[in-house]
Write a structure and sequence with these properties.
Rossmann fold; single chain; six-stranded mixed β-sheet; alpha/beta
Length: about 450
């Protein structure tokens, strides 16, 4: 099982939670802005410390006595993150001092009966360290002085986090396992697909939308390949998510996508592509996952010799940013083409982790530049000196150029198409990074 420890970062607005999240994640994921309430939704990332892996959740701020609708939603989301978490990091403002809101949040946290680590942020120098003693009043144990902005005290904080993981959780990362999230709208047949893949009734299947309330991890092997299938509750429109349990399902679904290597985007053939399907796919695409469209209930569609082509075109039109993703038309009820799902998972997972040599890549880039010159602006033309693949899962291409100001998305798309023509990368998004390199001519 891939039951990864979950750590939630909570606290009232503008205490530095997102800055701390970004430092621990090692990259800028949460929007950091000096305005309370900027981070409204939970954001997930995987963090590694001393060879231990865990999922980190950033949350909106908690203001217990504020009835503003946005702040109320943020409070509810943070409470959901606390429900999920194995360890909670409570961030307070060491410069501003303890507030009544901190006391209320501290009371909420004590009631969770979960390990809570009190991080006193904005302790930027030794003269401020005495500020931490006031926070003993919260009854949450020893305060940990940190500075998220300056990365001070974060090693000790991470040590404390991993020491508080409950026993029985998996903190290792196995590169050999392909993690597959089965996601999509409620009642599209995700659980039925999982059951067919496994060949047994592992997940309760019901025609009532939203039966699967939680994400369910199922580990299995086929031949020499190991898989972890993550069946999720459907991601619904936020305006439709009223019950707390439904909000919890949305949270788990997004978490499942963040943990996956491959995401199956299940579409109900009888409903066609909907706006909600595009949002589900957008989450997976933005996360840089390998993706497969699985059009289920294909047995219920009346067909002629144009049906398959028309449906394929509709999907391509609705998802122009995901032309790389294969489309499978299946029926979990009749078993039609179900065997192709795992075969396609294997293929896109391999493409997701593919690496090409720098010399081969530059041959393709050089030919592409000769066929179609890069854009120019005010007499200055973009020059691409060379490129290199600098990452996998998803494949990341770094281009060394003369000026970032001359780059244009349309030319990047042209280069991506040329790279795909030569190297494949089917089923996975690609990332491009530009680095300016001085070259005197």
């Amino acid at each position: 099982m891939d039951n990864r420890p979950i750590v939630a970062v909570v606290g009232r607005p503008n205490v530095g939670k997102s800055t701390l999240f970004n430092k621990l994640a090692g990259k800028r994921i949460s929007i950091v802005e000096d305005t309370p309430g900027v981070t409204r939704d939970r954001i997930f990332t995987e963090v590694e410390w001393l060879n231990k892996y865990f999922t980190l959740i950033d949350t909106g701020g908690i203001e217990p006595e504020n009835d503003d609708i946005i702040l109320t939603q943020m409070r509810n989301q943070a409470m959901l993150a606390m429900d999920m978490a194995h360890v909670i990091v409570f961030v307070v403002d060491g410069k501003g001092g303890i507030t009544s809101a901190d006391r209320e949040v501290g009371l909420m946290l004590r009631k969770t009966n979960k390990p809570v680590i009190l991080a006193v942020n904005k302790i930027d120098n030794i003269n401020l360290e005495d500020n931490i003693y006031d926070f003993y009043e919260l009854g949450l144990g020893q305060p940990h002085p940190i500075s998220s902005a300056n990365a001070m005290g974060l090693g000790d904080l991470l040590d404390e986090i991993v020491e508080n993981f409950p026993e029985g959780l998996n903190t290792e990362y196995n590169e050999d396992i392909i993690r597959v999230a089965i996601t999509g709208k409620p009642n599209a047949g995700k659980s039925s697909i999982l059951n067919k893949i496994l060949g047994e009734e592992r997940v309760i299947v019901s025609p009532i939308a939203g039966t699967t309330r939680d994400a369910v991890d199922t580990y299995f092997e086929k031949g020499d390949q190991q898989y972890l299938l993550i069946d999720t509750a459907g991601i619904r429109r936020k305006s439709k998510v009223y019950e707390r349990v439904e909000k919890f399902s949305v949270l788990r679904a997004m978490s499942a996508v963040s943990r996956a290597d491959v995401v199956l985007i299940v579409i109900d053939a009888t409903e066609g592509v909907t706006e909600q399907d595009t949002k589900v796919a957008g989450i997976a695409h933005d996360e840089g996952k390998a993706c497969i469209f699985v059009v289920n209930k294909w047995d219920l569609i009346e067909k002629d010799n144009k049906t398959l082509g028309n449906y394929t075109n509709e999907i391509r039109d609705m998802f122009p940013f995901m032309n790389y993703a294969p489309i499978l038309f299946v029926s979990a009820v009749t078993n039609q083409r179900m065997s192709k799902i795992l075969d396609t998972v294997d293929k896109v997972a391999e493409e997701h982790s593919k690496r090409v040599s720098t010399s081969q890549l530059n041959d393709v880039i050089g030919e592409a530049v000769m066929l179609n010159q890069p854009p120019s602006d005010k007499g200055k033309r973009l020059k691409i000196y060379y490129g290199a693949q600098t990452g996998t899962k998803p494949p990341k291409i770094t281009l060394y150029i003369n000026s970032k100001d001359l780059t244009h998305f349309s030319y990047q798309r042209y280069l991506e198409n040329k790279i795909r023509e030569n190297f494949g990368f089917e089923g996975t998004s690609m990332q491009f990074e530009y680095r300016e390199k001085d070259r005197k001519r």
